[in-house]
Design goal:
The structure is a homodimer. By secondary structure, chain A is an alpha/beta fold. Chain A is built from five helices and eleven strands, in the order E-E-H-H-E-H-E-E-E-H-E-H-E-E-E-E. At the A-B interface, strand 10 and strand 11 of A face strand 10 and strand 11 of B.
Chain lengths: ~220, ~220
């Protein structure tokens, strides 16, 4: 059974899933990259970036698990890029260069239509204008039995959580204070929505919490 | 220099510092005791409760540190007991029996005057009706050079944080979802208030974050 999963989602000690003012300079908002300080040093991520070395402990294993058995992704518009409003042209093709780390279909939530973009390495960006349910349906179909991963941002995760559509959610609580940003949990009652903690793993640079929707 | 410290303050994955409806049945609110599941099994706490055994690892060490060099405590009214409104009589003397675990002066914030209560073991409960600054002043004086610990609850911690009066804050992020309760960080910008993470310690049952106000 194909699942909808959130993986490696960084949350600050003070509960923020992203910083403020996300944009070209700060894809995850001001200081939002601090949420991923456990992720960037891993061998897994460095290898994806064609870099040598990296750490090989718990955080690395958890980072890698997040990419296993994923057949499609869903991203919020701001996770795809800094462009707001209508697409001015076709030039923006994501933060990740010619060969993005997805290597499968990626469904981008937006209010503005745009033709799909085929990238190197198997990533195809599709733009979905008719809402999160449609994006999920398309992604599940494209995943061909594998799982679908919601890549963020915080707003997209919150929308899917509220609809009880996420089956598994891995948050990495990072030892940073953001002070301001997007509160991941605000006005979301995780217990009423049916979620529970299934596993806790202490990493080198974050505490990993694995949450699951009860059957 | 005497400091104002918060220690061993449990916070859920979803950011709550207490459950809802705190009262006689649930001193920390519904399911609030889950925030302290890292604390109750420690040898330190069990010894205070005159119980044998207990765990002796990281969580135990951290729990113990929270009681070192403390000369006085400040508690919110609801941390002291379930009585709301005017004191109906003198019968309620705290949750802790004849010999509370404080063994020093404890200043209880309340809107209703009451005479001090001298308990066994050195604990004396004083009732402060003229606000958090007065309580701090009295506690610092009573502590005779040692530190003052704010014992909670969440509302009291938030009040002192907002006034930038807390020097050191140790939160234990516990692997539980409360779903509802008192959000510790809501509308508090910890960075703007001048706080930073100084140390992260992975315990057996919680992630310990040590925060400090920058000088």
């Amino acid at each position: 059974m194909s699942k909808l999963r959130v993986q490696s989602f960084g949350v600050s000690v003070d509960g923020f899933g992203a910083g403020v003012n996300s944009g070209l300079e700060h894809p995850l908002g001001v200081r939002g990259e601090e949420l991923m300080q456990w992720f960037f040093p891993t061998q897994f991520w460095r290898t994806m970036q064609k870099q040598e070395g990296g750490e090989t402990g718990v955080d690395n294993r958890v980072a890698q698990q997040g990419f296993e058995n994923i057949g499609a992704w869903i991203l919020g518009r701001n996770m795809f890029g800094p462009v707001r409003g209508p697409w001015p042209d076709e030039s923006w093709k994501g933060w990740w260069g010619d060969n993005p780390p997805y290597h499968c279909p990626v469904f981008v939530l937006t209010h503005y239509e745009r033709a799909p973009i085929e990238m190197k390495g198997g990533t195809v960006f599709h733009f979905v204008t008719d809402g999160i349910h449609s994006a999920l349906e398309q992604a599940k179909s494209a995943a061909r039995g594998k799982d679908v991963r919601v890549g963020g941002g915080a707003s997209t995760v919150r929308q899917y959580l509220r609809e009880r559509l996420i089956d598994e959610l891995h948050v990495a609580i990072s030892p940073v204070l953001l002070g301001e940003g997007e509160p991941l949990w605000r006005d979301i009652d995780m217990r009423a929505l049916g979620y529970e903690v299934t596993e806790t793993v202490m990493g080198e640079r974050a505490m990993h919490e694995f949450l699951r929707k009860r059957a």
